[in-house]
Design a protein that fits this description.
Belongs to the YkuD family. One of its GO terms (biological process) is cell wall organization. GO terms for molecular function: peptidoglycan L,D-transpeptidase activity; transferase activity. It comes from Sorangium cellulosum. By secondary structure, the chain is mainly beta. The chain folds into 4 domains: 2-78, SH3 type barrels; 91-159; 178-240, SH3 type barrels, CATH 2.30.30; 272-422, L,D-transpeptidase catalytic domain-like (Beta Barrel), CATH 2.40.440. It is 4% helix and 39% strand. It contains 2 helices and 35 strands. The strands form 8 sheets. It has a 10-stranded mixed sheet. Strands 16-26-25-24-35-29 form a 6-stranded mixed sheet, with no helix packed on it. A 5-stranded antiparallel sheet has the order 14-13-12-9-15, with no helix packed on it. Strand 6 (48-51) and strand 7 form a beta hairpin. The protein is globular. The termini are far apart.
Length: 423
């Protein structure tokens, strides 16, 4: 038996009480297995709670959540469910300035369960984003059925081009250091018989990568790095060189550069951690003392700074700046809408941002579907990843998201992936 979500946000609680701490979420199209078919007495507006796997409790009221797999509304909602097995769970586009509508004449619209629409943001300012699942025709126009089940006019949305870049999984053959190439193609150099380095006609394309041997050569004022690509060399300033900044991991063990499988561990924490070079624009994921994955990221467009302690509840970080320091993943969402409030204008909306992982204040690791500019700072301070990389990292980090859950929040018992962010 399972409990099925009929809402965009159904909370999994730590205890069978309406105001108990949330530890997870369900959404449209998701369900979770019951731990027990025996209902627990509810409170307030909740008639009954049910224990779910692997932990927690869900309020089953028939309106937002149900035990009935044949509920007609579930079948209707299934067409609007996010594709949680894809790097991009929705289709996405840039708003050109638009107004959401609850109904459109000529489109049969069900009476949705309460709380489905984002009524606070019916006006979507230009350059905000929209997420949708379906296109429908009515009255000679095409409408997009948005993730909150409102309608937006297709001609007011500019679809984003899919970002296809992805990082590299490290093995005994593919190991650090690695060079990535950002912004534009970069020339390959060859060593001549006179021990000079000359430019060839061949290039590494933008966002290509190549292994490095670790050897370098000084020619005049220029430094060249030897690659593992058929004797080619690269000018050091043309490359984003990814290699550990320190010799030891956060637990004091020497870092191994050889790649390959990490040491086997008993069930429990895998000692996962992530090193992020905010200004250089790269990320390395580690299991214990071994790097297992490397990629380019996009951090804050105004750089990176240490958070300043203030009298306010949270430390201050300058706008569009990535916070330096050590943090831990504490919440994860398959998608999360990010909202930047504005006093004198409509809020800035980034709709249904995939693979969002919170680590500090308002800052997250997440996919960016609105740009393909990896290795350079372009974010509002969060750490942007390509959709493919963000999805892999989301499922790799701790805590794990249980089967059927759409989001998870760390409890004291949960392991949590550590982040080390430096310039």
């Amino acid at each position: 038996a399972r409990v099925y979500s009929k809402s965009r946000e159904v909370m999994i609680r730590a205890a069978p009480r309406p105001k108990s701490q949330w530890i997870g979420q369900l959404t449209i199209g998701s369900s979770v297995r019951l731990k027990s078919a025996e209902p627990l007495r509810g409170a307030g507006d909740c008639p009954a709670f049910y224990a779910v796997e692997p932990r927690g409790y869900v309020c089953v009221d028939g309106e937002r959540a149900t035990l009935d797999a044949a509920d007609p509304m579930l079948q209707t909602l299934a067409a609007h469910a996010p594709l949680a097995d894809q790097p991009l769970p929705y289709r996405y586009g840039e708003s050109l300035g638009l107004k959401r509508l609850f109904k459109v004449e000529g489109i049969e619209t069900p009476e949705w369960p309460s709380g489905m629409h984002d009524k606070r943001h019916m006006q979507v300012r230009p350059r905000s984003s929209v997420a949708w699942t379906r296109e429908v025709e009515a009255g000679g126009a095409t409408w997009l059925w948005a993730s909150d089940l409102t309608f937006v006019p297709k001609d007011k949305v500019k679809p984003y081009e899919a970002a296809t870049f992805q990082g590299v999984h490290l093995t005994s053959e593919v190991r650090l250091p690695i060079a990535f190439f950002r912004r534009k193609p970069r020339p390959k150099y060859r060593l001549t018989e006179e021990n000079q380095l000359e430019k060839t006609d061949a290039v590494w394309e933008r966002l290509d990568r190549v292994g490095l041997t670790g050897k370098s050569r000084q020619v005049g004022k220029r430094t060249y790095l030897e690659t593992r690509d058929d004797g080619h060399w690269v000018l050091d300033r043309d490359a984003v060189v990814v290699k550990p900044r320190k010799s030891r991991n956060p637990w004091g063990r020497p870092i191994q550069l050889g790649g390959g499988a990490p040491e086997a561990v008993a069930e429990g924490p895998r000692s996962t951690w992530i090193e992020i070079a905010a200004l250089e624009g790269w990320l390395i994921a580690y299991e214990g003392d071994r790097p297992v994955f490397a990629t380019l990221i996009s951090a804050g467009r105004n750089g990176a700074e240490d958070p300043e302690r203030t009298e306010e509840a949270e430390p201050f970080v300058p706008p569009s700046t990535t916070p330096l320091g050590q943090y831990s993943i504490n919440r994860k969402w398959v998608t999360k809408t990010l909202i930047t409030p504005h006093v004198d204008a409509d809020d800035w909306i980034e709709a249904e941002v995939p693979w969002s992982q919170h680590f500090f204040s308002k800052y997250l690791l997440h996919a960016a579907y609105w740009h393909n500019n990896w290795g350079d700072g372009q974010s509002g301070g969060c750490v942007n990843l390509s959709p493919v990389d963000a999805k892999w990292l989301f499922h790799w980090t701790e805590p794990a998201v249980p089967e059927g859950w759409y989001a998870v929040q760390v409890t004291r018992k949960d392991p949590s992936t550590r982040l080390v962010i430096h310039r």
